[in-house]
Amino acid sequence: MMCSTSVAAEDLLELNAENLTQLALKNSSDDVLNEYAFHILKTKKFNEYYKYKKDDNKIKELINRERQSLDKALESVDTKARFFYKLKTSYQSYDENNLTINLGNKFAGKRQSIFRSHDHIKGLPNYFILLIPNLDIQN
């Protein structure tokens, strides 16, 4: 079963850790962006990092290169975004007379957490905590 709504002429992003991280980085300070660029170097380009690990000037150069790449990628990210959230689920009950489906409580209250990563980057949380302002939006 699939339920969907359409939003006229707007591209909605999927509500996931990657898109939330991009939005968070777009709204972050230079210190956080530099820390994230260093993290990318250490985790995704580790061959270069460990090759020049003891050369501070080369490491700074590599961080600057990653930062430029990050800045270029963030140019296309808006400072605000609208998201959609999708969830595969089975329904608990179906009322054929009223044509209603009970999905149960898929959101635990007015908060929803989305796991970002186990890594610790200054300025970025390991979890994004979403505060759902009211039950109409939640439903």
What can you tell me about this protein's structure?
It is a single chain. With 139 residues, the chain is α+β, with helices and mostly antiparallel strands. It is 39% helix and 14% strand. It contains five helices and six strands; from the N terminus they run βααααβββββα. The chain has helices at residues 17-26, 30-44, 46-51, 56-74, 135-138, and strands at residues 13-14, 83-84, 93-95, 100-102, 111-115, 127-131. A two-stranded parallel sheet has the order 1-2. It has a two-stranded antiparallel ribbon with strand order 3-4. Helix 2 (30-44) crosses helix 4. The protein is elongated, with a radius of gyration of 20 Å. It starts with 12 loop residues before the first strand and ends with a helix.
Entry summary:
Helices cover 39% and strands 14% of the residues. The chain contains 5 helices and 6 strands; from the N terminus they run βααααβββββα.
**Could you name the ranges where pLDDT drops below 50 across 5 or more consecutive residues?**
1-5
* Beta-strand content estimate: 5-15%
Number of strands: 6
Count of DSSP helices?
5
Radius of gyration over C-alpha positions, nearest whole angstrom: 20 Å
* Adjacency order of strands in the biggest sheet: 1-2
Order of helices and strands: EHHHHEEEEEH
| Residue-averaged pLDDT | 82
